[in-house]
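Reviewers of the previous submission asked for a worked example of the structure-prediction workflow described in the proposal, so we include one complete record here. The input consisted solely of the amino acid sequence. No template or homolog information was supplied to the procedure at any stage.
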Amino acid sequence: MAFGRRGEFSFSGEHVGYETGVLRPRVSSVIREVAKVYKVSKEALFHSQEGRRNEARQVAMCLIRELCGTSLKEIAQLFSLGSYGTAGGACSVIEGQIKGDRKLRRRIEQIREMASSTFSQTKA
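From that input alone, the workflow returned the following structure tokens.
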């Protein structure tokens, strides 16, 4: 994975998780699907909103970690965060809210399905 300026990243394609041998979606696929579901631009996901909660941005960070196997350090670089702890905090917030927020849970499941439908789930 290569990082450029804020929000710029590149992958050569889907990648296989080292530990599991399972194909994982591209980060760009997750970003695209989060933006689509939340009806925001992909670029908006990479900008923080000072003093305001940005659920779409937090969901993107959480799903990139979960679906793509991206480290918190890489997520922090991708989203121009001060530290990887900020990315971890965003994931913790979303994971906590999923339990009591049915609408959020449905949105995340929809994004998971859409991002995962772009490739075969198992290694041939």
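Residues 22 and 124 are 9 Å apart (CA to CA). We consider this example representative of the routine output the project will generate in years two and three.
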